[in-house]
Amino acid sequence: MLNQNQTPLLDALKANAARPHAPFYTPGHKQGEGISQPLADLLGTKIFRADLTELADLDNLFAPQGVIQEAQQLAAAAFGASQTWFLVNGSTCGVEAAILATCGTGDKIILPRNVHSSAIAGLIISGAIPIFLNPEYDPVLDIAHSITPNAVQSALQQHPDAKAVLTVYPTYYGVCGDLSAIANITHKYNIPLLVDEAHGAHFAFHPELPTPALAAGADLTVQSIHKVLGAMTQASMLHVQGNRIDCDRISKALQLVQSTSPSYLLLASLDAARQQMALHGKMLMSRTLQLAEEARTRISQIPGLSVLEMPRLEGSPGFVALDKTRLTITVSGLGLTGFEADEILDEKLGVTAEFASLQHLTFIISLGNTPANIEQLVQGFNTLAKKYRRSNLTLKNQVWQNLDRTLDYALQLSPREAFFAVSEILPLIQTNKRICAEIVCPYPPGIPVLMPGEVITKSVLEYLQQIQAMGGFISGCNDISLKSLKVVK
Length: 489
Known about the structure:
Elements: H1 8-18, H2 37-43, H3 46-49, H4 67-79, E1 83-87, H5 90-102, E2 108-112, H6 117-126, E3 129-133, E4 137-138, E5 143-144, H7 149-158, E6 164-168, E7 175-176, H8 179-188, E8 193-196, E9 220-223, H9 225-228, E10 236-240, H10 247-257, H11 264-300, E11 306-307, E12 321-322, E13 326-330, H12 338-348, E14 355-356, E15 360-364, H13 371-387, H14 398-401, H15 415-420, E16 423-427, E17 441-443, H16 458-469, E18 473-475, E19 484-488
Helix pairs in contact: 1-11, 4-11, 5-6, 5-10, 7-8, 11-13
């Protein structure tokens, strides 16, 4: 039985930081002696004493046999995995490695169109062929949920040679689909279910939170420990269970996408965050849920505002659970767009959201928030409703209601082929029927409309122009004004 009180990596780093010696190794600042004064004034000097490299006592991330191995074993036990890898390049490198470990050039992978850009990078690096599924979509709220079990079943029937299924759980809005059903369907084809669980690292530590991906049957999950728990930014974990995934391929894939000079500050923060949650996770999550519920209750009572909740009737396959620590507030009833409300709250009322869209603001409430934060959030919305309210905003939802219609998607080249092909930038009106060479993702609803390798069609161009005209914005592409697009030459 592993002792979750232990922090082997953190302890080793602390000891090495305090050890008197003459350093003739990287990094060049030599435990803070060479750090610039403005940076030292901001951060202090103590942190730099622990900014060390792969010394003998600190193990090696790519061939762990000592304290890193011990810390990863403790993390696997705490999060319910058979094996865990620490990540210092964020969940991005974990998603990339998951695809690299399961798919090669020309292999098919089933995944939603609202995947993170890291999944597209994984397709480009691996040469895998995407089979995209549209997630279930709420046209009233213009929010994309999860892909459904029926969609996965249909895709696997059409593509029984697929090598893996990848899904997002939870979504940015905290919505969880029926992952257990998706896992059962995927496993009938004896292929792994990969999960981008970047925003769900806390699920394992409280019964009122959604089921963790591993407990729901996922073979591999990637979690951003820094997003919702107590690790430093970029610090994430990749977990595996079962025998559908070759762990040696995971290790080798991570060597391709992780730095060979990992930050021990990030690694130690993972060790410390694991210990914190293993020992106190339920208490910390109980307090977090209480804060979230207070904010949810009070804000939902403010006229003109509404809060995303589970459907009152039986949930849909794309929305079977909600992370109550994620707070999504619809502000269109105040006559404001989410972008306008976000700017007012941030610049004038001292409240900063995680994410803004046309009708909504989304907030992450975590173990680091305080009752004072919640009070400021609630009062911020009270002020917003009283002082900045306008006549009702008219939103033309018909564009988003057409999300599920076929937009004539056709993959002419693999994302990898298109990414590395010779390209040119053309005016938008000249790109019809050309092959796209970049990602084009409109917000809202945050679902990529064009990927590298897809044929650009008239209907897609019209759709993008409508989104932009209604106040949405375009990301991922070279020209966010959408006056031009990059295409394969």
